[in-house]
Amino acid sequence: MLLKQQSRDAFNSLYANYSGVLYGVIKKVITDDQTAQDVLQEVFVKIWNNIEQYNPGKGRIYTWMINIARNAAIDKLRSKGEIMKGKIHTGEDAVYNVSEGMKTEQMTDTIGLKDAVAELKQDYQVIVNLAYYKGFTMEEIAKTLEIPLGTVKTRMRAALQILREYYNNN
Amino acid sequence: MNIKEYIESGILEAYVLGALNENERASVEADMAMYPELVAEVEAIELAMQQHAEATAVQPPAFMEGKIWDAIQAQQPEPLPKETNGQAHKVVDFTPPVVQRRTSWQMAAIWAAVAVSVLTNFVLLSQRNKGNTEIALLNTRIDSMKKMESQMLAKATSYDHGMAMLADTGMKTIVMRTAKPGHTMTSMMFWSKTKGDAYLAIHEMPMPPKGMQYQLWVIQDGKPVSMGVISNDLVANAGTMFKVPMTVTGGQAFAISLEKEGGNPTPTDVMVVGAI
Q1: Which residue of B58, B69, B117 is in closest CB contact with A23?
Q2: B117 touches chain A (CB under 8 A)
Q3: Taking phi first (over 0 means left), then psi (-120 to 50 degrees means alpha), and beta for anything else, what does residue B185 get?
Q4: What band does A159 get if pLDDT is binned at 50, 70 and 90?
């Protein structure tokens, strides 16, 4: 059937354009391959079903898709109990969460992060990872890393300045 | 507001990174509605995170493409169950037939729309040159301005309310400060001496422990008079102004104490206090 063929072509094109970026995002949240692949499938089905609702006026399609992937992955992470739900109460949690954050970094390093992020100071990287890829709030980050709230914000700013600078010049 | 300081504080980065709680997020969005510079900054941050995601892409294993397509196919509507033999049903059903699924031409139209929409997006997006990025940015800008408009309307309504309060020359602001050294807690009372109206705004107070609630007091002639227990919703939504359902004719101070759920006749554990 022609229409079916067309939608298959559309899917192929969607997949070819975005699967790498979305899988990259999911893998930064979830280390386990099997789980990450399940989430990728869930995310594509969701995008496919909602593509008509996507409004080009509402931000870039990339940001839209990345946020779907990020939220689905963080939800999965929470439901799997890989990080604590909600807030941090004990020191043990904190240590566990820092090591979670570190794990992500090692993982992203091995999969060939470009110079930009290699340049990004460890301190900054942990904060971006915890917020963007682990769903931590600023308060949770401050408690986990035992730094003041203001420092969390300052480091977020500094980290993004480095990334923006890098991508503007490359 | 000093825009430069605001931008340099890092709050917009925290916003894009998803690290703000609901109140903070709402407050940033309200600020964005007022200052287009903030919208532009947020877009630049989003763009950097997007470029970062592109630079760190990871190809999923090859088998995933077919697997995902199968999953998409599998969720398509099931074909109707086979018509039952007419002879088995002699009773005529008078209820109008329920349309159980889209007809094939509707499905065809939907698929065509999907295909066109998806393809259009790709055509637009695959030409990711600077010009297109700018158009996308402008579109986003227009969209945030629309959002801005509705937020400003909402803000205007709340300002109207605030203006009425401010216009009341008898209105006094009483800041209640912490009674616990080492714990920063504050709340505010707005009290109209002339009308006796009193408004409470929790500014910074921790959530009461389970089974406990805050209780509001006015000290009159040295004696605490209860103005009622404070809903935890109000504590969760710091900054919300709440009209106390009681007329306050006079007093020397307002205070908030921590009590068992439902409150107590006299305060047990005073948290914040402010002299009138």
Answers
A1: B58
A2: yes
A3: beta
A4: very high
